[in-house]
Each structure stands twice: as C-alpha cells, then as structure tokens.
Design brief:
Helix content: 55-70%
Strand order of the largest sheet: 1-2-4-3
Radius of gyration: 23 Å
Shape: globular
Largest sheet: 4 strands, mixed
Number of strands: 4
Strand content: under 5%
Amino acid sequence: MTAPASLDPERQALAKKYALVQRRLSFVEMGVFALLLAILLVTGISPSLRDWASGLGGPSFVTIAVYGLVLGAIFFLLSLPLDFYSGYVLPQRYGLGTQSLGGWVIDSIKSLVLTGVLGLAGLELLYWLLGAFPVWWWVPMAALLWLFSAASLWLAPLLLMPLFYKISPLDNPELVARLTRLAESAGAKVRGVYVMDMSSRTTTANAMLAGLGSTRRIILGDTLLANYTDDEIETVLAHELAHHVHNDLLWGLAFEAVIIAVGMWLTSLLLAWGVVALGYRDVGDVASVPLFVAAMAIFGLVTMPMTNFLSRQRERAADLYAIKTTGNSAAFRSVMTKLAGQNLSDADPPDWVRVLFYSHPPIGERIRGAGMDDGRQTTDGSKVSTR
C-alpha cells in the first residue's frame, strides 16, 4: 500500500498565487476579445473589410477567405502578447515550463497553421450553408460540427498529439501488462501503452486513455512515470477507465450534440435579427462573422457552469470507481496529493471559481472523498464513517 501524504503548504500557497494570476489573465483575454467584437459590431469596420475583400475580384469563396484571413490575423496579433505571457512566461516563472523560447515559437506556429486551416475551412462551409439554406443552415452545421468533434477524438493520438509530442511504446513490460490487464477487466480494448515526452515542455504530470474505438490507447506522461509508483499510476488509469465503464464518452457526445444544436439554433435567430438591426445584406453576408462569433461565445459562457457541473459529477463517479477497482484508496490520495504539488493545482479554490470554471472536482475535495470511501480520517481531521 502507498503511504498517505499531505499537501505541501508552500506549494499550495504558490498554487493559489498561480491560479489567481491565471484567472486575471483569462478575464483580461475575455475583455480584449469582447472589446474587439464590440468594435467590429458597432462600427463599419466589418462591412468595410468585406467590401475591400470583394473588391479584389473573384468568386464569393475568395472574398470569404480573404476576409477570414485578415480578421484572423487581427485577432492573432492582438492576443499574441497575452498568449506569450500566459503560455510561456508564466509557466517559466512558476517552475512549470521546460520548453525553450524557440520550441514555444515552433509549437505556436503549428497551432496557428492548424487552427487557420481548420478555421478557414469551417468559415467557407458555414457561409456556403448560409447561402444555400438561409433558414435551416444551422441543422447541417450542427451535425458537421458534432462529426468533427467525434473525428478529433478518434484522430487525436494518431495525428494531433504527435504534432506536439513524441509518443512511443512504453518500455516497461511489467507495467504494460498490469495496465493492459486493468483495461481488459474494464472491458476496454486498447492498442497498447505509450509514453509521451511531456518533460520536453513542462514539469507537470498527466495520463490519459486517448482515442476512440480502434485508435484507443493508454498514454502516460514521462513526468508521471518518473515520479509515481506503479500503484499510483494504476489508480490514475483506473479513473480514466471508469469513463469507459460508465459510457461517459457516449453520453458526452450525445450531450454535446444537444449543446451544439441549441447553440446553432440560437445563433441562427441572432443572425436573422442582425441582418435588420446591423444592416447586413443577408444572413450569408460574411460581414456578420463578428455577430456569429459573439453569439457562440456568449452561449458558451452561459452554459459553461452547467457543463462543468455535469463533468464534475462524472469525475466524482470515476474517482469512486478507481478506488473500488484498485482497492487502494491510499494510492489515490497519494497521487492526488503529489499532483497538487507537481502541477501547482489549487486544492481548495473559492466556491465561485469551482462552480464557474472547474470541470473536475478540486483536488482537496477528491482527497477528502477518498478518505470518506474507506472510513479513514480526512485531511481536515474529522472522522468519517465507512461505506
């Protein structure tokens, strides 16, 4: 059995500072994003950009492409300083970043190219549908977005993750056999156990059950392998396997289908209103892009507390499954405690932060929950009964 551990007060104090800075940066980023959208909506900049793009000549898809590239470049340049600070400077300052500046730039270029290609393709598809089906465009668009989301899950370990990390088979036959047996006992077919070179970019640790169907595989960060016992790694994987056992992926895809459909429908109503209120030519006018983005962003913010609440419920159930399956609540508490310190995770954030932003229960809550499961003393010193 793994010996119980306690949270490091110094690391937790640093984690709270880190979390506070991250929240402030997030609010600044949202403020900059909202201000730019407001400027585009209340001024004639967006229609003027459309007119300039169409004045270059060519079919409508060229106008859409030029408009999208220019608008995307504006957003990119305005967000670049904040992205650099939050993505590179801050992790380095708090001892979480190991990547060189050159490496960060290369990763950023990869992300920019990938986002640009997919974003431009999505924009062309959206405005083709708006032109072809001005009333019911949102139905096929919602279906295509959902299919793209499912395809991304399937392709993640094959194409997306290898763009940024080196992923290779784990060279530890004993651990591979142990984790494979655990997956088989949960009824999950996996295509091997792999290690990902997280240490090339960060000191944080993670593990996942990545992929969908034939691409599903166990992926462990090398930072996890270097600092955790086999018992602790097993309980981490047991948590991930719980999502398979509970059909969380299928339920998640079904819920996502509903959310996407509702979001697209509400956006269609806002676009129809915007044609009249903001003077667009029609719903297929590419100048309405800021209104479309604003509608989706607002919908995402409004629904985020609900989706996070549902996610936390699934994660709590997965924790309980991991503890019961491994029969090792001490290992679970230990791994959570170590992750809190290594990843600089605030174990007990303010309630409003947890409700609004946390898709997982805070680590302090997860540690206390593990204590309740076996009747041991919780981290606050109170006694709990055995289930």
